[in-house]
Amino acid sequence: MIGCAFAACVISGCAEQPKREGKLVPSSTIAQLANPDEPGREILRVYRLGIGDKLKIAVYGEPDLSGEFQVNAAGVISLPLIGQLPAKGRPIEEFRESVRARLTEGYLKNPRVSIEVLSYRPIYVHGEVRQGGELQFKPGVKIRDAVAMAGGYTYRADQAAILLTREGEARELTVRLPNDMMVLPGDNIRIPERFF
């Protein structure tokens, strides 16, 4: 009986806090994506802020400190009273905590801060598509959706794979199609030309 209760606790703990590279990651910051190197396999990934992300920052009871703010070209957000804070590459929860910590430095006693992403940085689709370029990111968009948003394939397109570069990663990955992998903000998707 004790063994069954222990097993249930372990299973429920794993469901609430999935592991990624040996570290526990809060479930609220995780999106599931198909691994481009192993189609169909799920991996856990933490969303990180980037240039162009627009946020709604609310400080409870302080309307003058609340509002809509954008991560600028330098990767920072300028906030009333506390000035510039680095945002690029930081998980939302970590950035929220840094806002809260700065507000406690002589400004507010126990500030309550909430952060919501209003709009994400764009994605880029180019190569053998009809209308390539910068496209607005929408949550839940898959690779095939991104190609459709770019007008679909040209007659020269190699439809067996796409080349994907994730923001902040140097290497270009080959993703075999069909694949249900989700697109992330800042993704650069290149549709290659077929050679036959």
Question: If you had to describe this structure to a student in words, what would you say it looks like?
Answer:
- The chain has 196 residues and is an alpha+beta fold.
- Helices cover 18% and strands 31% of the residues.
- It contains three helices and 14 strands.
- The protein has helices at 2-16, 92-104, 143-149; strands at 19-20, 23-24, 30-34, 42-46, 54-59, 67-70, 76-79, 83-86, 113-119, 123-127, 133-135, 161-165, 173-176, 188-191.
- A five-stranded mixed beta sheet has the order 11-10-14-12-13, covered by helices on one side.
- The relative contact order is 0.15.
- Residues 1-44 have low confidence and may be disordered.
Q: Which characteristics define this entry?
A:
disordered N terminus; 196 residues; elongated; alpha+beta; 3 helices; Outer membrane lipoprotein wza fold like; five-stranded mixed sheet; wza like fold
Whole-number total of structural domains: 3
Radius of gyration: 21 Å
**Strand element count:** 14
Q: CATH architecture of the largest domain, please? A: Roll
Cα shape: elongated
Helicity level: 10-25%
> Could you name the ranges where pLDDT drops below 50 across 5 or more consecutive residues?
1-44
Q: Can you identify the CATH superfamily of the largest domain?
A: Outer membrane lipoprotein wza domain like
Largest sheet: 5 strands, mixed
Sum this structure up briefly:
The protein has 196 residues and is of the alpha+beta class. The protein has helices at 2-16, 92-104, 143-149; strands at 19-20, 23-24, 30-34, 42-46, 54-59, 67-70, 76-79, 83-86, 113-119, 123-127, 133-135, 161-165, 173-176, 188-191.
